[in-house]
Amino acid sequence: MRRFFLTVGALIGASILAMGQSAPLGKDLIKSFSEKMQTYKTIEADFSFTLENLQEGFSDTHSGTLTFKGNKYFLDLMGMEVYYDGSTKWQFIPDANEVTISVPTSLDGGFLDDPTQIFRDYEQDFKSRFIGEKVEKGVALYEVDLYPEDLSEPYSLIKIIFKKQNLDPISIKYQGKDGINYIIEVSKFKPNTNVKDESFVFDPQKHRGIEVVDLR
User: Fold this and answer.
1) Are residues 27 and 141 in contact, defined by beta-carbon separation less than 8 angstroms?
2) 10's torsion region: left (phi>0), alpha (psi -120 to 50) or beta?
3) Would you place residue 109 in the very low, low, confident or very high pLDDT band (cuts 50, 70, 90)?
4) Taking 50 as the threshold, does the pLDDT of residue 38 lie above it?
5) How far apart are CA 191 and CA 69, in angstroms?
6) How confident is the model at residue 113 (pLDDT cuts 50, 70, 90)?
7) How far apart are the first and last CA of the chain?
């Protein structure tokens, strides 16, 4: 009986130690990932964007491209091109030959409002949990779950998977409290490329017959 209690005690102690190590490990990995992302002056990425509606039981996936430099970005997704030069935003729909111009007061509306947030500083305002290491297609990956400190956030969890070797992102999943999830899977990731500032400005004059909706 004494041996039984000693064994149980050892197992409990090991479990507590493992739990104590999981949070720092996750925090350290997220710190390394965030710091690495912040060192890049520019990023170009090809990705798939999936909207997963658990309540309605359907999902919809689209391919897209993203280029950003500082707080400027260009997003091509779901038939729309979005240009943002740091102050003015142009949302151009090629099929309709229409552009909407606005000056956002904030960029808090999620990925579609500010796609650069997927490469944000995740070290702040989140609790982290290291899920584990796995190998897919011969590539070693880390998986970390993040829980927002601010309970008013519209999502309950962010799951990030990135490469062990160089910390390049593989996928980022936002788990919404409303049963709607957003999943970004990165197929091509190119940091520190030569991107001109003109890439983030849309010129309506270059599009004959375009309809301009100016909300400034």
Assistant:
1) no
2) alpha
3) low
4) yes
5) 10
6) confident
7) 78
The residues pairing with 26 across neighbouring beta strands, listed in sequence order, are none
Contact between residue 198 and residue 212 where contact means Cβ atoms under 8 Å apart: no
Residues 6+ away with beta carbon under 8 Å from 146 = 30, 122, 126, 127, 128, 129, 157, 158, 159, 160
Q: Are strands 211-214 and 98-102 parallel, antiparallel or unpaired?
A: parallel
pLDDT score for 65: 97
Q: Walk across the sheet containing 72-77 and list its strands.
A: 126-136, 139-148, 155-163, 169-176, 180-191, 42-53, 58-69, 72-77, 80-84, 89-93, 98-102, 211-214
Confidence at residue 78, expressed as pLDDT on a 0 to 100 scale: 94
Alpha helix segments (H runs only) across the chain: 2-39
In 3D space, the residue among 113, 118, 65, 109 whose CA is nearest the CA of residue 89 turns out to be 113
d(CA 20, CA 168): 27
pLDDT at 107: 60
Q: Do residues 118 and 31 make contact, with C-beta atoms less than 8 angstroms apart?
A: no
- The SS3 of residue 216 is coil
Is the pTM here over 0.85, yes or no? no
All structural domains of the chain, each given as residue ranges with its CATH number in brackets, are 2-78+102-193 (2.50.20.10)
